[in-house]
Amino acid sequence: KKEPNRVDDLLDELLEDCHSPEDILGETGLMKQLKKRLIERALSGELTHHLKREASDKDTSPNSHNGSSKKTVQSDDGELELSIPRDRNSSFAPMLVPKHQRRIAGLDEKILALYARGNSTRDISAQLEELYGGAKISAAVISEVIESVSEDVKAWQSRPLDEVYPIVYLDALYVNIKVSGRVSKRAVYVVLGIDREGDKQLLG
Prior knowledge:
Layout (H helix, E strand, L loop, with lengths): L5 H10 L5 H5 L4 H26 L9 E11 L2 E10 L19 H10 L4 H11 L7 H19 L9 E13 L2 E13 L5 E3 L2
């Protein structure tokens, strides 16, 4: 018989008061609380590491913890209100939840994957809500993600190209695309060039 370990004991203790899926996955459920605590602990660790690094640098002025500020971010589990730790010199820039970022990493990729399959913003919102047990991601947030990528695409399309590519490959990838409300298989053409240094470049 396997001996129970500390992790098993903690999980049993956490699940003791959970009597339904809502208690685990709901708006105020265990999973959301755990995610919030985990992110806040990681942010605290980031700041501690930052302060230690600054303390070893003789060119920086002394720094220390300076309370925290509230920040609401979108996550796979809906909105999370986080306590973001601060430092006195305002030199701390968190990597897990960067300044001015309002979404947890990973959510953008899911939105773009659904959009690439021809889903509308309303469809994406509904699918994410169903996928994450009621987590509401607004159409405005989804549009913002799509628009930010559209700007990158426009910049990529207008970038300068080399004058000569000794080798150019042309290929087609067939994908399902929604056109005028109907999904059909369309060819997406890919142009790959080999430059004079022998490096591959996606041309279009």
